Fold these 2 entries.
Entry 1:
Amino acid sequence: MNLDGLNKVARAMVAPGKGILAADESNPTIKKRFDSVGAECTEEHRRSYREMLLSAPGVEDWIGGVIFYDETLRQKSGDGVAFPELLSRRGIVPGIKVDTGAKALAAYPGEKVTEGLDGLRERLKEYHQIGARFAKWRAVITIGENIPSAFCIEANAHGLARYAALCQEADIVPIVEPEVLMDGPHDLARCEAVTSAVLREVFGALARHRVAPEGIVLKPNMIVSGTECRKQASVDEVATATIRCLKRFVPSAVPGIAFLSGGQSEEEATAHLNAMNALGPYPWELSFSYGRALQASALKAWGGRKENFGAGQKAFAHRARMNHLARAGHYRPELESEAA
Ligand code: 13P
């Protein structure tokens, strides 16, 4: 393991002003996204849609890393350049999702545990050869009546830590993603309590598994009200609670925290990130690793049609730039109209 190298890659992924594009939707997930805009889910459509995002003019100023799915990591641009190479030429770090999904946790109804450790050492070796320099593993924690259980949190933290240790052994930076879902009627305080318990367990497990905090990126949820909570917290309340929680549980040696969007709208996710960065500075970079909140308008503008390639790129570049501004606390909602 080359810790200096890992730290350098992690810092490039979340360099000041930059964040990560999560374009690692599995084929069933991207099908759902394509269905929502009436685009057919063929391999060529998946390839050309990703090429549209990766080749959007200017994005190297706002995007430091892109997470791929196995199929996408092996695809090429229309003129024959492998996607990882396309990114590296623009100074963007290519990464790969390596978990194989969150499955029902036996004997714990309503709870999940993430799979994908079997054969991971060998897969990481191959991914490194193809050009991946970081990886992602997503654990899912559900809030409900009497859940999450302590055991579910422990099982997921254990999985994340084993994955992270294998990544560092392979000189691949692990994105450690424990996602507490937004679904449900719970309030902001409950989200904070559960996220706190999860982060405490995750960092305990990482330490026991001898994972170096300097060589990871944390990808947490923000502390938000549940989607069905009657009183939705304000942007400032979200920012204050999220920062309080992260300061308590994330070691300052971690180079970067890159939030997932988790079902927030594009503008909400940007406004929250902006409010947090406006309250900074922090010991870690406070960045984004959005999937839906970076792609929703680009996907709509594209709609599965070649002739909309330029419009899709413009929509994606706008979103990336808004989040770039939010990285420094310089975003204002009025800037959204520039997209038109
Ligand atoms: P969202 O930002 O759409 O939640 O996706 C991020 C991600 O990579 C989830 O694993």
Note: Strands lie at 19-22, 63-68, 93-97, 102-104, 112-114, 134-141, 173-180, 217-218, 256-259, 285-290.
Entry 2:
Amino acid sequence: MTPNPLRSTTPQIAASILSADFRNLAREIDDVLRGGSDFLHLDVMDGHFVPNISFGPPIIKATRAATNAYLDAHLMIMEPARYAPAIVKAGAQNVTFHVEVVTDAAQAAREIRKVSNHVGISLNPATPVERIFPALDHVDVVLIMSVVPGFSGQSFMPEVLAKCEAVRRRLRPDQRLEIDGGINADTVRSAKSAGVDWFVAASAIFDQKDRGAAIAALRRGLE
Ligand code: DX5
Ligand code: ZN
């Protein structure tokens, strides 16, 4: 049974496989989950919404075959509703889309809800937080980008913390606030203070030799 992190109110650490060694994906997944990562974050990029191409359904399917962990898909793509069914079919439990690529965010969330148990909405650092408000009733997760999306290994942008606070105030107790980009053992603290529940990290986990120690350091930052 895949655990459901939406049910948990304790801070969750999600390892983003964008920085994994894809030659050994199953082993990398096993390493970070044994090392204490709560679930996996899957960064799907199309080369249009962001200036990078990562992976799509085949890698999500391979990830699903390697683990029963919760899979959180972050779609950095145009036309998210068009591709959501394939993402879910491949094995993702949550599908997060970007507000910048849709004209009606509430409608996009409802459309994705038809095929996905969980739905998230995300926004770039430059996007005003008010843009997501009309969709808040229709999502389970709000993902605040703390870097300009496209690449792992960038520096955390502290100016997005005010957005975290503004969203937190508007969320129901059953909704979760997630942050993505530049999260490490230091930045995780300020994000937690701003009300974040889910912390995504790629380089702070995968670029370290001892993934268990890296995740423990993040967890200490959350205490
Ligand atoms: C950025 C991706 C992130 C990325 C995070 O475009 O959405 O999930 O993998 O990488 P780090 O943790 O290295 O900033
Ligand atoms: Zn991401």
Note: The CA atoms of residues 178 and 198 lie 4 Å apart.
